[in-house]
Amino acid sequence: DAMVIQNPRYQVTQFGKPVTLSCSQTLNHNVMYWYQQKSSQAPKLLFHYYDKDFNNEADTPDNFQSRRPNTSFCFLDIRSPGLGDAAMYLCATSRAGAGEQETQYFGPGTRLLVL
Amino acid sequence: AQSVTQLDSHVSVSEGTPVLLRCNYSSSYSPSLFWYVQHPNKGLQLLLKYTSAATLVKGINGFEAEFKKSETSFHLTKPSAHMSDAAEYFCVVSRGGFKTIFGAGTRLFVKA
User: Which chain A residues contact residue B34 at CB under 8 A?
Assistant: First the structure.
């Protein structure tokens, strides 16, 4: 089945130690998104890629970076995690064009714990 | 500017009774609207979407929603709740440019 995959499902890191979360998709969608979701809150968009074009949200901290080496993969890098970065990180994809660009398909998320 | 308001942070129903989760939106043009469901520690699953076709939209698991332009509403309903429906529900409006706006979410509790 076509899907959005996130690894790992749970990630523990230390305060200040860089961490990378990964997302892959078999939907062949050209848009990929990263969201941060804190407990009992709605997901908050960090950035998205349209093909190789990176689009950062204005209020996304510089501590958060992303890479998309090819259509299928997208990475979220947190350069120096703080305690406030503990959250669920959700990856999503959509297909631009043909009126479908707005429907996003989500992965299961990676729960990040910062010690 | 676009926005979305979920009118209830929590809704509690008994199993077998109807579900109503309320969502109002504001948009300067005809929006695309979505309902997503999120079970604990899981990602978001698309329930249904409205994209200016039929105003009554049927989704998965027996859910449906009706787009009412005059009321700027997109309420989610289900005739009979099941225990497995207990989850967080998000109403989402698309503002184009690959960006979406999430409501704050409604937690649905289903009592046996």
Answer: 102-103
The answer to whether residue A42 neighbours chain B at the CB level (below 8 Å) is: yes
pLDDT tops 60 at residue A101: no
- The CA distance from A19 to A112, in Å, is 9
Token pair listed for B18: 């109807």
Cα–Cα distance for residue pair B43/B108, rounded to 1 Å: 16
**Tokens 């309420």 appear where?**
B75
Polymer length in residues for chain B? 112
For tokens 């998309």, the residue is A68
**What percentage of chain B has pLDDT greater than the value 90?**
72
What's the pLDDT tens digit per position in A20-67? Answer: 999 999 999 999 999 999 988 999 999 999 999 999 999 999 999 999
Rounded to a whole number of angstroms, the distance between the first and last alpha carbons of chain A is 36
Q: How far apart are CA B22 and CA B55, in angstroms?
A: 16
Mutate to test the interface with B, among A1, A102, A104, A111 (most CBs of B within 10 A): A102
The distance from CA A85 to its chain's CA centroid, rounded to whole angstroms, is: 13
Residues 6+ apart with CB under 8 A from B29: none
d(Cα B19, Cα B108) in Å, to the nearest integer?
Answer: 9
pLDDT of B51-72, one tens digit each? 877 889 999 999 999 999 899 9
